[in-house]
């Protein structure tokens, strides 16, 4: 009987921890928002995009959370915002990892993070997905089209 009460208490505390985790996404822009609503929020926050299509809205050289991102894309599927990707171009893997660490330090002010190390690159996961299962965002370094990048990615849903 005592073990059941203990399990119940731990479960309640765990639930409160999950509830306390902010589920805010990129400022006022929420994953899962309908296209028209999300587009209005994106334009209000970031101004006119470089490209605006039915399945994505893209920017270049955008400042967000104190970082200058070389490219940003808001991706849609079935009229819903499913993913937000923020990239910083770097000259090499070392510099990409340095940006990943700085991004993680910034996000850790508002979210709990977990970290993995793979191929001498950091990979962070944090926040709680709006669906309540999985992580809200990841932060990683990768070589994309021959160029090292640090990426902050919300989603996908």
What features would you describe in this structure?
This protein has 157 residues and is α+β, with helices and mostly antiparallel strands. The protein has helices at residues 2-20, 35-46, 93-107, and strands at 51-52, 56-64, 67-77, 80-90, 113-118, 121-126, 137-144, 147-154. β1 and β2 form a beta hairpin. Residues 2-25 have low confidence and may be disordered.
Shape: globular
Q: What is the mean predicted local confidence, pLDDT?
A: 85
- Low-confidence residue ranges: 2-25
- Strand % is 35-45%
Biggest beta sheet attributes: 8 strands, antiparallel
Query: How many angstroms separate the termini?
Result: 40 Å
Task: Report the radius of gyration as a whole number of Å.
Answer: 18 Å
- Order of H and E elements: HHEEEEHEEEE
Task: Give the neighbour order of strands across the main sheet.
Answer: 1-2-3-4-8-7-6-5
Task: Enumerate how many helices there are, as a single number.
Answer: 3
Number of strands: 8
Helix content, binned percent: 25-40%
* Secondary structure category: alpha+beta
Features:
157 residues, disordered N terminus, alpha+beta
């Amino acid at each position: 009987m005592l073990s059941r009460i203990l399990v119940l208490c731990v479960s309640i505390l765990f639930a409160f921890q999950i509830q306390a985790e902010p589920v805010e996404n990129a400022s006022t822009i929420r994953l899962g928002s309908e296209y028209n609503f999300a587009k209005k929020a994106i334009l209000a926050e970031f101004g006119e995009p470089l490209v605006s299509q039915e399945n994505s809205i893209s920017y270049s050289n955008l400042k967000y959370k104190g970082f200058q991102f070389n490219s940003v894309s808001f991706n849609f599927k079935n009229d819903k915002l499913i993913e937000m990707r923020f990239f910083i171009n770097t000259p090499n893997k070392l510099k990409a990892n340095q940006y990943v660490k700085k991004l993680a330090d910034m996000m850790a002010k508002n979210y709990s993070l977990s970290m993995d190390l793979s191929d001498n690159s950091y990979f962070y996961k944090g926040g709680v997905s709006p669906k309540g299962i999985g992580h809200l965002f990841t932060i990683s370094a990768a070589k994309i089209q021959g160029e090292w990048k640090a990426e902050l990615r919300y989603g996908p849903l």
